[in-house]
Specification:
The complex is a heterodimer of chains A (347) and B (316). With 347 residues, chain A is an alpha/beta fold. In chain A, 35% of the residues lie in helices and 19% in strands. Chain A contains 13 helices and 15 strands. Chain A is globular. The two termini of chain A are 12 Å apart. In chain A, 55% of the residues are buried. Chain B has 316 residues and is of the alpha/beta class. In chain B, strand 5 and strand 6 form a beta hairpin. The chains are: A alpha/beta (347), B alpha/beta (316).
């Protein structure tokens, strides 16, 4: 129920963490700088004072303390592991992909790992090739992990709650670009289902599947497209497993599919979805599926180059309009629209 | 007296079980990568005899001995190696994934050093819940070269965790000699104590030396002062599989290993302490029978059904 309580994405994460820590003494937070005043981009601020001994700043040893958290989870604690950039989580790749992800399966279900990895990914101005990787394909391919991507504050809170209630390793890939996005967020503790996509805006002409920062851009594209096209916008939410049921049901209705990726075009999420859709004999597509993605180069730093890197709301709107044989929009985007993280309030 | 005989029986069980499993391996009955522990038995049994029941242990790719010394179920272990449904991991893990939570053997995994921070987290939980128990991780001299081990030493010292790392130095990482992997000035004790972690070195072929030094360190570990026990020992077989003689070993000859053998040594200790030859032979025969019965059980146990390919990806 809407209660007109507008929170930022990061505030919603902090609220979920706080409420869950209050309920369950076995939950603790571990990560670099999580005890700072503005710890983990504000998502942990104040928690150290409220929960002494349960918010741990750690040495620069990602493999070591991520593994320590995995071991704690194997023995019944519920750690929230925070990696502020996905690249740093790769220093703990053995612990995430080979230990935590495989543990339950390789021991035949006799020992599980209830751990939450909060990993910030992707776009942020000025961060360049080693701070902006959007390694969705890598995490989607790591079997044994549940992987979700919250696109909005409401989903950020609900998915973190569900992750903390789950008995498996859950990776929450948090796009940094979405941190300033605002939304009305319920006060109470609630869970959003892991493993389910979400029809954010129903429509009948074309299915647009997006996630994370791509979802925000696609949401903004709705008003650019206008009334002439009825666009169904699906928030992917879950990367592992992908909820094909929701996507295929939508494409069955619309006959058209556009996938928006904010990662490189090779081995991206859209290719996975388009491949699955192409294999559905019962589906009657009205047109070839469309993929919008970043070019196959690392993300550079200069705004003169990043301007052409990420699909914009105008690119998405125009891909939809082209697919529907409608005139494209021609307004040029402002510098702010192109290069600053969105601060919009999503209904 | 009976404590020594009990310890000898545990060491003998590990030896005989592995010798029989090696024979089975040669008959292509074991389709699982196997790293034999033969030669190192005094380490596992010496350390585990210094533990309380509620203390936890974790191991590596070479962990049959650790698992059995902690009290792990022999039948389940052999079933696991044979890929059977009644294995400790229902056939999904195999030889490199030993687990028996009922005796606090938390698990073993083969990526070098990977288990070390997990053991640290196991100790973290013990401290978090104010338990009086400790955690032991078994690793080899090869794993001791992984960076994550040093990260963990720092973490364990920083958070004052009840963690004991047992480094079984058998002089080889696969076929690579220690002297080819470390400078001649390399100094394990200085490295470990440099982190503020206690260190002792034991003769890993001598049960009593291992037991005594483990006990000494564990006193501090239980009070939150982590430690490393390095045990110098010999791996009688190849890195993997039941091969007996290899050219890379140079001075580490079969003759030398036989002379230093922990089982032979322990048998003498037991005899010297008043246990009769007859009693020892009786215990050995009982142990051989337990092993044979367990192998027969495992050979006749059913394989997992094909549907199990898809189970256990996630816990409920």
């Amino acid at each position: 129920m809407p209660n007109n309580r507008i929170l930022k994405y990061t505030e919603a994460i902090k609220e979920a963490t706080d409420q869950m820590m209050e309920n369950d003494r076995d939950i603790f937070v571990i990560g670099l700088g999580v005890t700072y005043r503005n710890g983990a981009d504000g998502t942990t601020s104040g928690l150290n004072a409220k929960y002494p001994g349960r918010v741990l700043d750690v040495p620069n040893s990602e493999g070591g303390w991520t593994g320590m958290a995995v071991g704690a989870a194997i023995n019944g604690l519920r750690p929230i592991v925070h990696h502020g950039r996905v690249e740093f989580s790769l220093l703990a790749a053995d612990q995430i992909f080979t230990q935590a992800a495989k543990w339950n399966y390789m021991f035949g279900g006799v020992s599980n790992v209830p751990i939450v990895f909060r990993i910030n990914v992707g776009r942020q101005w000025g961060n360049g090739p080693q701070h902006t990787q959007a390694l969705y394909g890598l995490f989607g391919n790591a079997l044994g992990l549940k992987v979700v991507i919250p696109s909005t504050p409401r989903m950020a809170k609900g998915l973190l709650v569900s992750a903390l209630r789950d008995n498996n390793p859950v990776v929450i890939l948090e796009p940094r670009w979405n941190f300033q996005v605002k939304q009305d967020v319920p006060t109470e503790v609630y869970g959003e289902p892991l493993g389910k996509a979400r029809v954010a805006t129903p429509g009948k002409d074309i299915t647009v599947v997006a996630y994370g920062d791509g979802f925000v851009a696609a949401h903004e594209a709705l008003s650019l497209v206008g009334e002439s096209v009825s666009m169904e916008l699906i928030d992917l939410v879950s990367l592992n497993p992908i909820d094909y049921e929701t996507i295929i049901a939508s494409v069955q209705k619309t006959g058209r599919l556009l996938c928006v990726d904010t990662t490189n075009e090779v081995f991206n999420v859209g290719s996975e979805i388009i491949s699955k859709v192409a294999q559905q004999k019962s589906l009657r597509l009205l047109d070839a599926p469309i993929s919008l993605a970043c070019p196959n180069v690392p993300c550079p730093t200069s705004t003169a180059l990043t301007e052409f890197y990420y699909p914009t709301k105008a690119d998405i709107a125009n891909a939809v309009l082209r697919a529907m044989h409608k005139p494209e929009i021609t307004r040029a985007l402002t510098f702010e629209e192109l290069h600053l993280a969105p601060t919009i309030t999503i209904p | 007296m009976s404590a020594l005989l009990d310890a000898y029986k545990k060491m003998f069980l590990i030896r005989v079980a592995e010798e029989e499993l090696a024979a089975l391996f040669l008959k292509d009955k074991i389709m699982s990568f196997v790293h034999f522990y033969i030669g190192q038995e005094a380490v596992a049994v010496g350390v585990c005899d210094a533990l309380q029941k509620d203390d936890k242990a974790l191991g590596n790719h070479r962990s049959h001995g650790h698992y059995l010394a902690k009290g792990g179920d022999l039948k389940k272990m052999i079933c696991e190696m044979l890929g059977k449904e009644e294995g400790s991991s229902h056939g999904k893990g195999g030889s490199m994934h030993m687990i028996d939570r009922s005796v606090n053997f938390v698990g073993s995994t083969p990526i070098l050093g990977g288990i070390v921070p997990i053991a640290c987290g196991t100790a973290f939980e013990q401290k978090y819940h104010n338990k009086n128990s400790i955690t032991v991780a078994f690793l080899g001299d090869g794993a001791f070269e992984e960076g994550i081990v040093y990260e963990t030493l720092n973490l364990a010292a920083l958070f004052k965790l009840p963690l004991l790392l047992v480094v079984e130095n058998n002089l080889f990482s696969t076929n690579s000699k220690l002297k080819d992997r470390r400078a001649d000035t390399h100094h394990v004790e200085k490295i470990v104590t440099g982190f503020g972690v206690m260190y002792l070195k034991a003769d890993g072929n001598d049960y009593q030396d291992v037991l005594g030094k483990a006990k000494k360190l564990i006193e501090g570990v239980r009070a939150g002062s982590p430690a490393v026990l390095e045990c110098m020992t010999h791996r009688h077989l190849a890195h993997s599989g039941p091969v007996f003689e290899e050219e890379y070993r140079e001075e580490d000859t079969a003759e030398h290993r036989s002379e230093k053998d922990s089982i032979k040594k322990m048998r003498q200790v037991v005899l010297r302490n008043g246990v009769s030859e007859k009693e020892i032979v009786g215990a050995e025969n009982d142990t051989k029978k337990i092993v044979q019965d367990s192998i027969d059980f495992a050979l006749h146990a059913p394989y997992p059904p094909k549907e199990n390919l898809y189970t256990d990806l996630y816990a409920q």
